Sequence to fold (539 residues):
Amino acid sequence: MINLLFGLVGGVGLFLLGMSLLADGLKSFAGDALRRALLRFTGRPVKAFASGALATALVQSSSATTVTVIGFVSAGLLTFPQAVGVVLGASLGTTSTGWLVSVLGLKVNVGFYALPLVGIGAFLKLLAPGQWKSFGLALAGFGLIFIGIQTLQSGMEGFSGIFRFPEFTLAGFIGDAVFVLFGLALTVVLQSSSAAVATTLTALHTGSIHFEQAALLVIGAAIGTTVTGALAAIGASVSTRRTALAHVLFNLATGLIAVGLLPLFLGGIRWGQEFLGLEPGAVSLAAFHTSFIALGVLLFLPFVDRFSRWIERLLPEKGPTLTRHLDPTVLNVPPVALEATRRVLSDTAGQMFQILHARLMDRPVDASGTRRLELQHALNQTQEFFSRIPPGAEGQPLSQARVAQVHAIEHMMRLQSRLQPPPFLRQKAEHDHLHQNVTLLREILELGMSGLQGYATGDWLKRMEKSSIELSELQQKGRPTVLLQTAGGSRSPAAALDTLDAMRWLDRAGYHIWRICNYLGGEGLPEPTLVEGQSHPEE
Fold:
């Protein structure tokens, strides 16, 4: 009994450790590439499903895919319907583990041949440069998976002699429910549906259970894999809870359908064995696992948009709209966290531009000052969130993105204090007198609003820069003129000071708007070098 327990526990432990090392190593080795590919190939729900299935099959972890998707949704990189498509794909992609175990792990003594992989992977982890350390970690994890399967198989060989599950009979729904619940509990205890499925495949291969019992255990594992996500969603953001709920509802519905149609599935497996050459045992069980998940996908995928809207109504967004992307769960993924802050800053800047544009057009806006307070609150929250993002290596793209956002925040804080034009500028006579200056600022604002929303043409930042420079030149040329008019008596000193103040306000506002858009919507170019005799907008 002790040898049996040690073998089972050790085999499961090695398998779990291997899966963890494989997922962590691959995420680190090709994490950014996987993230970019996931975003690039995630459009309509069908494409999102395909990318989710492929990503999960590569990293051998539906949890890793789901966590990444939650981060993307929280940061605003993916819509919720796209996230649901990826979750469906992850559920199907995780069935690849069963094929890996049944086709390779149980047929050949792969554990023996996997030992060199563990050794090579360990040496790479210790000695290799850069990202090859992560590749070594993944390689060692891949080898440990098969060593774990071999250890588990050895432990299972004595299992059937002690526990005679094939003789266990409990007819009807109650009997099915017992094995489904056992599979669910096994998944919760192991915190991995892949480990539960691998254990079930090994038990079937050694004759410890018969096929129908194994099928019910696999169904339970499919349902149980949602428990971890559901527990993690308690107290989490709305995006996390929505994604977890979609995962739970899909797997629960698919599991119930599989139980209800189990006789049909078993008949289909027997037909496949007889006419298609499907191997009995573990391979047939892997085929059953893929089949009932695929049936669930076929039933859900055409209605992803409706399903998503229903969940969104069930769990509506609460709290400030501007800061909805600042989800603490993405802080451990700096690229996603920085994209979240960039989007919040872009939305906040767009709101500032709208207020300024409306005031320049003499339209009533934010008379109570509520929107200004909301913008200030959003800016403060973003700065606090931004400060919690782990720093990256200096000179790397992430470091450059951080610097660009720091510049953007600085310019937004300066613009925040200038959301109210000078009273003198709101007088119609003087408004007309500074018509060219005001027109240029309106153009800068309109380009900024459309550019940050992705609607402007490709040269929008260059056009903003050109208008900002023209606005600065107008201020430089207009200043001596106003002073000469004052000296000549055609303009009172008070009116001259008000005019100069209005010109300076227009110039500074245009400059800050351009720089904000450059850092949030462009390449984060450095501050322009001032030529001799040119004043900085803050001087």
In short: The longest helix spans residues 2-40. The chain has two domains: 2-314, 328-521. The two ends are 83 Å apart (CA to CA).
